[in-house]
Amino acid sequence: MSEYPPCPKCNCEYTYPSDNLMICPECFHEWNPADLSEEELEAQVKDANGNVLQNGDTIVILKDLPVKGAPKDLKAGTKVKNIRLTDGDHNIDCKIDGFGSMALKSEFVRKA
């Protein structure tokens, strides 16, 4: 096995260093390992407690959230299963019983 990290594009394990870059011989992708770790940290979605969220997680809503066009709010303590992470301001897509499809901000939820 190689002592170098696999290619982030195609997961090839035969990568090799060249100056400050790593190169993949299969897809010819070049990257800087130091930059990659910063990008991975930025891409992570964290809940209100700092736990990293992933697709398929179960979350709990921390406070009552008003919903435009709905007669009632989303209540604190509502459990939401099988979330999907997205880019943007509202970075969680989910389906909530009684409300349907919703987009939530990760700062108002915690991992269950």
The overall pLDDT, averaged over residues, is: 87
What percentage of residues falls in helices of 4 or more residues? Answer: under 10%
Give Rg in angstroms.
19 Å
Poorly predicted sequence stretches spanning 5 or more consecutive residues: none
Key terms:
single chain; 112 residues; mainly beta; three-stranded antiparallel beta sheet; 1 helix; 11 strands; 10% helix
Notes on the protein architecture:
With 112 residues, the chain is mainly β. 10% of the residues lie in helices and 29% in strands. The chain has 1 helix and 11 strands. It has one helix at 33-43, and strands at 16-18, 21-23, 30-31, 45-46, 52-53, 59-61, 79-80, 84-85, 92-96, 100-104, 109-111. The strands form 4 sheets. Strands 1-2-3 form a 3-stranded antiparallel β-sheet. A 3-stranded antiparallel β-sheet has the order 7-6-11, with no helix packed on it. The longest helix has 11 residues, at 33-43. It is elongated, with a radius of gyration of 19 Å.
Short characterization:
With 112 residues, the protein is mostly beta strands. The protein is built from one helix and eleven strands; from the N terminus they run βββαββββββββ.
Topology:
Blueprint: E1 16-18, E2 21-23, E3 30-31, H1 33-43, E4 45-46, E5 52-53, E6 59-61, E7 79-80, E8 84-85, E9 92-96, E10 100-104, E11 109-111
